[in-house]
Amino acid sequence: MSRLIVVSNRVPDPDRAPAGGLAVALQAALHDRGGIWMGWSGKSCGEDEPGPLAFQQQGSITYALSDLSERDLSEYYNGFANSVLWPLCHYRIDLTDFARRDAQGYFRVNRFFAQRLLPLIQEDDLIWVHDYHLMPLADELRRLGVRNRIGFFMHIPWPAPDVYLTLPMGARLLQSMTAYDLLGFQTENDAANFRECLQRGELATRRAGETDFVDTTGRHFQVGTFPISIDTGNFARLACQGVRNPTVRKFRATLGEQQLIVGVDRLDYSKGLVQRLNGYRRFLETQPHWAGHVTYLQITPKSRSGVHEYDSLQREVAELAGHIGGTMGRLDWAPMRYVNRAFSQQVLACIYRMANVALVTPLRDGMNLVAKEYVAAQDPEDPGVLVLSRFAGAAAELGPGALLVNPYDEDAIAQAITQAVSMPREERQRRHARMMEGLTHNDVFHWCTDFLGRLAPSQVLPLKGPPN
Ligand code: G6P
């Protein structure tokens, strides 16, 4: 079996237990095949050029990490990746900053990663590149003579062609992506948008009745849908075991008989936090008898503080949360708690299990794994209700069991909260069972096996779970 090389901007800390299902699954795949995980170290080397890669060995996995200079971080990470591609792919053309200088930095850092990776690649290695930071990486590797099978998975949405085509460097970037052998997307809608961009740009033709494309040089590549998932079994176990956790027990005691409504999101404008908080306020205004009987906990770790929009959002959401507390609260009741920090997987799993309702209402999201984790964490006998945005990738799978909402419609959010807090147990059980059925079948190991099986069809690898 070939070795695997995973390349992503963020790499899990080799010294810590992986925090999420994606890291667990990729580490399991790397562990079985042996291989390398390459990416950014998370550190800056200031004004200097980055030194050689730092290697760290863990069993059969080699971590190969590179620092980036302040200029790289400003142009590639804060610049083109997070101020152009991120807003564009989340349909926020209004926030997209099309600075050409940053685009050059983005291509330069991709070239740099390719040059650093080149000496590590062996003839049969499979290479799997992740996410919007590294879209042109395969093209840079091909220019250096790499002929290995290279796959790409896009974790965030691929926008409608009319949105994508506003990007000045769009054609060049799209052209570079035809250098992959397999391009994977979260939903059918994303894959269809990507295919249409290719066809409108006349960069590739699709052969009638077949799934693959042929680019202008005659190379074949495939475009497919691979909805990412979680380590469902492990997450359900964590949620059951964590009831003894002291942090969770203390929190439980503060709730009394109140129903708990929870939201967990990175602080990001794509998450629809302002509309969600306004939806909750509308719920309290229109259903005043619920005052004193519900608490809304919004957990929102800060992120990407180097990008201007994130700082202003922090002020806006904090102000709104304070306003709801100030105007709706009573001496003996606080309607909401807004917390800007991250919690361990175990604490989150328990909070999900005790929450009667989860609000997952992004304006646009590639998948949204919080929605899946919330479902996996429930007690099947007395499950909570998921209120889910129809614009999250997860809606394609969880739609029939969740309460789907338009995340821009604050009245619809208020109505969904009313329906969720009053839903009879039998209906909750029925909805939960439908969602859980899909999650049991499509866990993150299935996702990983499916992608690698398509990238290298002769080497099907059934991944059963994390290494012991
Ligand atoms: C999204 C992206 C990931 C990214 C994560 C956190 O989930 O798809 O690639 O790592 O956000 O963002 P950050 O900028 O902190 O890496």
Automatic annotation (TrEMBL):
Q: Does the keyword Transferase apply?
A: yes
Q: What InterPro entries does the entry give? A: Glyco_trans_20 (IPR001830), Trehalose_OtsA (IPR012766)
Sorted alphabetically, the Gene Ontology BP terms of this entry are: trehalose biosynthetic process
Q: Does the keyword Repeat apply?
A: no
Catalysed reaction, written as an equation: D-glucose 6-phosphate + UDP-alpha-D-glucose = alpha,alpha-trehalose 6-phosphate + UDP + H(+)
Annotated transmembrane regions: none
**Pathway note:** Glycan biosynthesis; trehalose biosynthesis
Which enzyme class? Answer: transferase
**Family, as annotated:** Belongs to the glycosyltransferase 20 family.
Q: What does this protein do?
A: Probably involved in the osmoprotection via the biosynthesis of trehalose. Catalyzes the transfer of glucose from UDP-alpha-D-glucose (UDP-Glc) to D-glucose 6-phosphate (Glc-6-P) to form trehalose-6-phosphate. Acts with retention of the anomeric configuration of the UDP-sugar donor.
Q: How does it assemble?
A: Homotetramer.
Q: What is this protein called?
A: Trehalose-6-phosphate synthase
Per the UniProt entry, what species is this protein from, by scientific name?
A: Paracoccus thiocyanatus
